[in-house]
Each structure stands twice: as C-alpha cells, then as structure tokens.
C-alpha cells in the first residue's frame, strides 16, 4: 500500500536519506529505529510531503506522492501525521482541534464530526477534556489528543514521529497504549521510535536505519535476538544494555 | 566508503527525477509569466482608466506639470532637509524615552508605584491627543509660558512635541514586546541567578525588541510623515515650502513633489524592516 523506492534527500552537502526502499502492507505496523540523525524523521516527513525528496518514488496505493503535479492536500487527506511536540492548536479546545480537519477538509457535518470526536476521546480516556484547552493538559494527554486528531481524519496511513520522545516515562505508557489500540483496529502505521520494548512487542516489522540507509529490516524477534549487521547489534546493545 | 568504487560527486538523478525537475522548472517559469502578464494587465487598466477620464488633461496640468515640478524642486528639497533632521532627532529621543516608560510600567517594585501611575497617565494622555494638537499646544503654549530655560527655537519645540506624541506610541509597542516574551524566559534568567534588572536587560529586552521591530519601524515610518505637522507652528519644512509655491502659482504640482520626497525616504526604511525581520527569523529558525 505504501511503496518507497530509492528515495534520496540531502540538506546541502549533508546526505540524510541515501536510497531508501521500503514497502508497507495494509494493516502493517512498521517501527523505524536508529540513532538520532539516521534519517527516521526525514523519511516520515518525505512521505507526508513536508519535505521535498531529491530522487526516488513514493506511492500510496494508486497515488504517486512524488509526482510534482500532485495536489498535496488531496494526498495529505489520506495520510495522518503526529509530531513529537504534539502541535495541537492552542487557540482551540480539544473538541475543536478534533473537528477542524474532518469539517474543513472532508466536509463532514458539525454534529457528525463532534459525535465521532467524542467517541474517539472516550476511547482514549479523555471524554471529560472535550472543552479543555491544550495547554491545560499534561503532555501525555496532549499527545493522546494529537493521536485522535490524526485518526479522526480516517487516514489510510498513520505516521508517528517519535510521539513519546517529549514525554516522561510514566506518560509514555498511556500514549503507547493508544497506538497499540490503533494497531488492533487495523490501522497501517509507520513510526519512528526510541521505545525498543514497544517496538519489539507491537511492531510487525523493525527497520533499522543508519547513515540514511536501511541497514537491516525484519520481524522484531529476528532483529532483537539475532541482528545480522554489527551496526544493528551495537545500536541495540546501547539501547537495551 | 571512500575506498570503494570512486563515485564522481553525488549520484546522478534518475530519469523520473529529471522529468520531475523539468516539470518544476516549467511550472516556475509558467508562474513567473502569469504573474508578469497579470501585473501588466492590472497596471495598464489602472493607467487607462485614469488617463481616459474626461478631466485628465486638466488634472495632469495642475498636479503633474513637469515645468512646475522643476521650478518648485529646489525649494522643497532644501526644506525637506528640515524634515530629515527633525525625524532623526525625534527618533533618537523617542527610543530611550519609550524604553524608560515601558520598563517603568512592567517593573513590579512597589516603590515605583507613583512612577507607574505617571507613566500610564502619560501614554494614555499623549496617545489620546491628535499629534497636530500636541504640536500646536507645545509650539504656542511653551513660548507663552515665558519660563526661562525652555527652548524657544521652533525646531526644538517641534522636536519636543513629536517626541512626546511618538514616545507614548512607541512605549506601548515596547511594553507589548516585553509582555510577549514567554514567562519561562523570566524563570530561566532568574534561575541562573540573574537579578530582575539583569534578566530584563540581558534576556527579556533583546527578545522583546526583536519581536516588535516591525511595528516599531511602522511607527518610525509614520513619524517621518508626521514631521510635516510642524508646518502648523510656522516651520518651513517640505510641505510648507510646497504650499508656499502652490499659493503663488495656483498649481498643485509642488505638493506632489513633496509627496515624492516623503515616499522616497520611507521606502528604504520599509525594505530595511522586511530584511531585519527575515534575518532574525532565519537566525532563530535554523534553516
């Protein structure tokens, strides 16, 4: 469903993505792991057209995302992106954050959009925060709202960019719980993460990146117990050690 | 990687990527062409509407006569020098005054209470009075007081009037800037052991001034134009010189010449402001 072939991206002289090939099946949960600066976030940003690729093809189903004539908004309506820093709209309440996209982009009626938003908020345990403003919520609560804001768009693909990196350990669990729940409902997810335990338990596939290349990829059990590449081994030792 | 096959430079783009690049180049060109054509059409229409008006020949003679422009130019140019001096002097005085007023208004020290009240009263009163009225009050009122030590030269009276008026505006702009700096910056400064004053001058004010540079410059552009108001107390600046010429020839071209002088000095300031804003955004935004 998502097909990435030979994607390259440089910032000036700095090569961030050096020929990435990655195919994701519907309903699959893929975890991108690797050191900071290995290109995880840039890859996600390229998929959501937040960065322009230098070369290579990205397809979402029948849609070529790398086509320069593509209507970006049409593409983004099918992909959802959640940021490390939540990026909720501070001038809107939780409910207003949730219905903005469905109403303005998808043209869903107010009553229907609100009903669905409340349903999603109940699912992540935030039903009582409907009319709260984002700044009055904890980091974990904000990120859960950001997750359901993305899901409210009924995306085909959910991209998560280190969604727990700005949270303290106690709050990480409640956010990952939501991600696990989304996986259970059949959502296709590509996420960059440093949460190795979560990746091991919940991912269908682990992709290890270093220096802008995919060094190794495979099912979590294989990557975590029998990594083939010495760089993967070194990385995992440092992170699990 | 360097000891493997010698790759000359970066990987050459794929055929598909070359197509994409070509498409983007064509699109950029197409956009430039569309922009140029639409600008020409709009400008052409504007010129056509104005010049085809029945009264245009008379308007051109009264407002845009080349002869009158040439004749009135030297007097207006010499008088405009006064506007420039006024503007520079007022700007120099307004900044410290406004900064002082703004700081007094935000400082929490209880001993400052009477000064805070005075500062608030000053901004309220002087922002409330039309600038032209302040110019007249100062220009005619100060000399009438007959106090020794008060300047009597019209230049200085004009300077005082404009400084009082613009000091109030600029003080409010700077105060808004101080309040716009996130409270965590105060906390970070105090946590380092900096005192209130040190935090204010080293941490808060530099950010505050940067945040309000565009509205600050906006006020200065406005000030450049308002230097014309001192003509009401008898100073011969550009506008007055132009109307003297107009009164003797019954031709309005001289006023347009004065207008061009004002435009010519404000445009560089506006572009300079844009440049400043973009530069500070780029510096703080990384890329």
UniProtKB/TrEMBL annotation, chain A:
InterPro entries named among the record's database cross-references: AAA+_ATPase, ABC_ATPase_HisP-typ, ABC_transporter-like_ATP-bd, ABC_transporter-like_CS, MetN_ABC_transporter-like, P-loop_NTPase
Any one GO molecular function term: ATP binding
Membrane topology field: Peripheral membrane protein
Source superkingdom: Bacteria
Compartments it resides in: Cell membrane
Domain ABC transporter: 2-236
GO cellular component terms attached to this protein's record: plasma membrane
Keyword Methyltransferase: no
Keyword terms, alphabetized: Amino-acid transport, ATP-binding, Cell membrane, Membrane, Nucleotide-binding, Transport
Family affiliation: Belongs to the ABC transporter superfamily.
Protein's name according to its UniProt entry: ABC transporter
Upper taxonomic lineage: Bacteria, Bacillati, Actinomycetota, Actinomycetes, Propionibacteriales
UniProtKB/TrEMBL annotation, chain B:
Entries under PANTHER family matching the protein: GLUTAMINE TRANSPORT SYSTEM PERMEASE PROTEIN GLNP, MEMBRANE COMPONENT OF AMINO ACID ABC TRANSPORTER
GO CC entries: ATP-binding cassette (ABC) transporter complex
Location(s) in or outside the cell: Cell membrane
Pfam families referenced in this protein's UniProt entry, alphabetically: BPD_transp_1
Molecular functions (GO terms): transmembrane transporter activity
Listed SUPFAM superfamilies: MetI-like (SSF161098)
Lineage summary: Bacteria, Bacillati, Actinomycetota, Actinomycetes, Propionibacteriales
Transmembrane annotation, as ranges: 32-51, 86-107, 128-147, 153-171, 252-273
Classification via InterPro entries: AA_ABC_transptr_permease_3TM (IPR010065), ArtM/GltK/GlnP/TcyL/YhdX-like (IPR043429), MetI-like (IPR000515), MetI-like_sf (IPR035906)
Name of the molecule in the record: ABC transmembrane type-1 domain-containing protein
Chain coiled-coil ranges: none
Family named by the database record: Belongs to the binding-protein-dependent transport system permease family. HisMQ subfamily.
Membrane topology according to the record: Multi-pass membrane protein
PROSITE patterns: ABC_TM1
Keyword Ubl conjugation attached: no
Species for this entry: Aeromicrobium flavum
Boundaries of every ABC transmembrane type-1 domain copy: 80-273
Keywords per UniProt: Amino-acid transport, Cell membrane, Membrane, Transmembrane, Transmembrane helix, Transport
Record GO biological process: amino acid transport
Region annotated Disordered, chain positions: 1-21
């Amino acid at each position: 469903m998502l097909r990435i072939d030979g994607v390259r991206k440089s910032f000036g002289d700095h090569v961030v993505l050096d020929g990435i090939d990655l195919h994701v099946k519907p309903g699959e949960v893929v975890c991108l792991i690797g050191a900071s600066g290995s290109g995880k976030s840039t890859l996600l940003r390229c998929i959501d057209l937040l960065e322009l690729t230098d070369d290579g093809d990205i397809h979402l189903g029948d849609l070529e995302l790398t086509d320069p004539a593509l209507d970006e908004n049409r593409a983004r309506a099918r992909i959802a992106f959640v940021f490390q820093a939540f990026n909720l709209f501070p001038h809107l309440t939780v409910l207003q954050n949730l219905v903005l996209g469905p109403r303005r982009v998808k043209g869903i009626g107010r009553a229907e959009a609100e009903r669905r938003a409340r349903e999603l908020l109940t699912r992540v345990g935030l039903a009582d925060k409907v009319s709260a403003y984002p700044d009055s919520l904890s980091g974990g609560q904000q990120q859960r709202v950001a997750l359901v804001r993305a899901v409210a768009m009924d995306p085909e693909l959910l991209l998560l960019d280190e969604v727990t990196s700005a949270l303290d350990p106690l709050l990480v669990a409640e956010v990952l719980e939501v991600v696990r729940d989304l996986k259970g409902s059949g959502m296709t997810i590509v996420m960059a993460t440093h949460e190795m335990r979560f990746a091991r338990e919940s991912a269908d596939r682990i992709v290890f990146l270093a220096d802008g290349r995919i060094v190794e990829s495979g099912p979590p059990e294989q990557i975590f117990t029998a990594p083939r590449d010495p760089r993967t081994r070194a990385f995992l030792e440092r992170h699990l050690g | 990687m360097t000891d493997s096959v010698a790759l000359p430079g970066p990987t050459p783009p794929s055929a598909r990527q070359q197509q994409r690049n070509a498409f983007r180049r064509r699109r950029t060109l197409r956009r430039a062409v569309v922009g140029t054509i639409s600008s020409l059409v709009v400008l052409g229409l504007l010129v056509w509407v104005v010049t085809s008006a029945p009264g245009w020949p008379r308007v051109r003679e009264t407002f845009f006569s080349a002869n009158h422009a040439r004749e009135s130019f030297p007097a207006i140019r010499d008088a405009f020098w006064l506007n420039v001096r006024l503007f520079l002097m007022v700007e120099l005085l307004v900044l410290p005054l406004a900064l002082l007023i703004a700081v007094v208004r935000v400082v929490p020290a209880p001993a400052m209470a009477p000064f805070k009240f005075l500062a608030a009263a000053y901004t309220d009163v002087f922002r409330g009075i039309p600038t032209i009225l302040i110019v007249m009050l100062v220009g005619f009122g100060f000399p009438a007081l007959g106090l020794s030590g008060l300047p009597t030269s019209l230049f200085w009276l004009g300077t005082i009037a404009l400084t009082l008026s613009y000091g109030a505006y600029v003080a409010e702009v700077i105060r808004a800037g101080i309040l716009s700096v996130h409270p965590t910056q105060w906390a970070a400064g105090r946590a380092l052991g900096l005192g209130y004053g040190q935090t204010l001058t080293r941490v808060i004010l530099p950010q505050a001034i940067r945040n309000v540079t565009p509205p600050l410059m906006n006020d200065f552009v406005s000030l450049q134009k308002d230097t014309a108001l001192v003509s009401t107390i008898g100073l011969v600046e550009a506008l007055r010189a132009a109307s003297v010429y107009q009164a003797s020839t019954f031709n309005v071209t001289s006023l347009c010449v004065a207008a061009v002088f004002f435009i010519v000095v404000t445009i560089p300031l506006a572009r300079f402001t844009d440049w400043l804003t973009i530069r500070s955004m780029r510096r703080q935004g990384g890329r």
